[in-house]
Structure formats: structure tokens, C-alpha cells
Amino acid sequence: MRVWLFDEALPLWAQRGADRLHGGFHEMLDQEGKPTAAAKRARVQARQAYVFATAGLLGWHGPWQEAASRGMAYLQARYRRSSGLFRTLVSRDGTPLDDSVRLYDQAFVLLAMARLREAGFDGGAMETAARELRQGLAEFRHCAGGFRENSDRPFQANAQMHLLEASMAWEAVSGDSGWATMAEEIVGLALDRFIDRQRGCLLEVFDASWRPASGDLGRLTEPGHQFEWSWLLHRFGSRRRDPRALQAARRLRRAGLAGVDPARGVAIDEAWSDGSARQSTARLWPQTEWLKAAIHLGEIEGDWTSAEQAAEALQGYLATPICGLWRDRRLETGAMQEEPAPASSFYHIITACSELFRVALRCPAASASVAIRGRAVTSAAEMPLL
Questions:
Q1: Which of 132, 250, 273, 288 sees the fewest Cβ atoms within 10 Å?
Q2: Quick one: CA torsion of 143, 225, 119, 39, rounded to 10 degrees?
Q3: Greatest CA separation found in the chain?
């Protein structure tokens, strides 16, 4: 994975994924490595800035500073509104197409700022901008706690999850107690409202009182989100020695594993709260979240079987004619869907790689398991610790 990331993916996306004409990053590359004509979402610019700042922290010697700066500068120039919040979508040339503001996008801008701050960019400026953006989130505040999303389904767990991720990232690099307060509030909401106490799974859509939405929407779960929340709650609980968060993380990991299709060896896209499949296609990103959660399981229990399975599932998406790209979706038949590689997936991939490199450095048993897979890897001693 380190060889693929450092020698193939990062150079490819730094060169071909950068929009040299209009600025920022292209939304996706086709399987020949050519940019498509898609409009540019704010979340993709933020995620790509995060990717390249992370690459620098991992020890990549390519032009990560220029690439991370490109994404953040483009965000500020093309997406930032007079309110200080960030619009959703612009055209390829930067003309605003959707001026609405989504909580989901603000969370990724905050996450990118935290990672650039950690990577050594102007810390004071980043922290000031992030604090102003956090204050701007007041318009998303909900009277029953947490935040509303600006969509036809305003009460969702997903955007809160990424806001938790961003808050924890800022808590790690800032002395501002407001980030810890926000993280604790969202975790409390997840433990009290988002997680089904009987089944231990995390639901997706709610009503204004944070009760499960009526009908099928209230039974909807995503295996990838079970793993992602598990990873976040494990980190949160470990940092604070919070047994309730740690127990929830274990239950969510089990709920996610119920959504792994044994025939194809992949985590599916959607399931019902009873564990039965709702949407059996399998996108790339749930595999990365499975890997992250499985690595934490390996660290606790010393059993790396699930991590090996998740890593193998992920590698299946990276087998492309041009190295450094990926397939985004595996169909029910097991075949990969022919479609461009979305830049948005890189955030998921590099975060999973960060966890993989970290544990390979710290745990010889995990490193040996990776080597047994027969892939080209460098020695664990060469893997920087993020």
C-alpha cells in the first residue's frame, strides 16, 4: 500500500488531478487518467487538500505543499461566501452553481484546515479561520441538540460524524476547548440517539426529536458508517477513557461486519437495522472504513484476520489499467462498474493507509500479516508514524 500510495497514486493525482487552467482539483479522472467535465464540489477540494497535507505528514517527498495549498486557496477563493461559510458547488471554471451551504461540506473544510495546521501551514491563520467557521455553524444548530443539515433530510447522523472527526482533529492540534466541547456533544448525541440500543447499530435518518424516522428510512443503516463511527468512538473513548464510548465502538464494529458479503468479501453499501441487505452494491469507501475499524480490533485483541480481509477487499478496487487510480463500485455480480475514479475517495484511502502504516510500525505481528499477503511493501521501519 505504501508503494502504491507514494509511487503511483499521489504523483498521479498531484499531476493529472490538479486543474492547472482554472485552479483547484478535478472532480474525477477517467480510467485513462483524464479529467472529466464534472462540476467541482466543495467537499472534494477540501478532501484533496487534506490528502496532500496527510501525504506530507506520512513522509511523501512529492509536491504535497503546493497541492495542499492549491486546494485550500481554491476553497477560499471560489466557495467562501460573505457569511464565512462555504457554498456547495462551482463549475469547472469556478462559477458558482449551487450557493447553498451544507453542514457536510463545512465539516470537511474544518478537517482540511486542521490537517494543514498539523502539517505546518500558517497555524495562526488556520486556527482563526477554523474558529470563525465553527462560530458560523450556529445557523445549523438544532434546539434538540446537534446540528441540522441543509437538505430534505435535515436530521442525519452522517454530517455529525464528519463534524466529530473535524472536532477531534482540531482538539489534537489546538488549545481551544471549544473543539473538545463540540466533540463531546456529538458523541453524546450518537450514544443517546443515533445508536439503536437493542441491536447496537447506528441509524442514519431521524425526526426533529432525534428519534428514528418513520417508515423504512428509520431502519436504514450503512455498514461503512458502522465501521467509521466505531473508529471515531474508539479513538474518542481511548483518549478520555470512556467505557461507554468504547463499548459502543465494539458493538458498531460487529454491526458493520454483519454487512460484509462473504461471497464477494466486501462490505455492502446499505442494510436494514436487522442486518439484512438493502443495497448489495459495494463502493470503495466502506472497505477503507472496515480496515480502519479492524485495525483497532487487532490492536485490542491481537487478531488481524478482519484487517487482512478488509485490506484484501480494498486492494481489489485498486487494480486498474493505470496504477494510482481506483474503481468505485463493485456490483452484485462481483464485477467492477466501469466509471471514472472519483477524487473524493482519496480521503478515505489515505486515512486507511495512515492507520495501516501506524500499526505496521508499532506491531510486528500486523506487519508480518501484511507481508504474508505477498504484496510489494517496504519495511515497517521505513513507514513514518502519523
A1: 132
A2: -90
A3: 54
Q: How far apart are CA 204 and CA 196, in angstroms?
A: 11
Burial zone of 61 (CB within 10 Å; 0-12 exposed, 13-18 middle, 19+ buried) = exposed
Q: Look up residue 254 and give its amino acid.
A: R
Which grid cell is 194? Answer: 443515533
Report pLDDT digits (tens) over 53-109: 999 999 999 999 999 999 999 999 999 999 999 999 999 999 999 999 999 999 999
Instruction: Count the neighbouring beta carbons within 10 Å of the beta carbon of residue 145.
Output: 15
Q: In what order do the strands lie in the sheet with 277-279?
A: 220-221, 270-272, 277-279
Rg over alpha carbons for the chain, rounded to the nearest Å, is 20
Cross-strand bridge partners of residue 108? none
Q: For the range 318-324, what are the long-range contacts, defined as Cβ-Cβ under 8 Å and sequence gap of 24 or more? A: 318/4, 320/31, 321/31, 321/32, 322/12, 322/31, 322/32, 322/33, 323/4, 323/8, 323/9, 323/12, 324/4, 324/8, 324/9, 324/10, 324/11, 324/12, 324/13, 324/33
Cell of 364: 510486528
Report residue 361 as a C-alpha cell: 510500525
> Cell numbers 482519496 correspond to what residue?
346
Q: Which of 242, 247, 265 is nearest to 330 (CA)?
A: 265
Contact of 278 with 272, CB cutoff 8 Å: yes
Nearest-angstrom CA–CA distance, 324 and 341: 10
> What are the tens digits of pLDDT across the range 231-287?
999 999 999 999 999 999 999 999 999 999 999 999 999 999 999 999 999 999 999
Give me the amino acid identity at 12: L
pTM of the model: 0.93
> What is the Cα–Cα distance from 188 to 110, expressed in whole angstroms?
21
Those residues whose C-beta lies under 8 Å from the C-beta of residue 65, and which sit 6 or more positions away, are 52, 56, 119
For the chain, give me the number of helices (H) and strands (E)? 14, 12
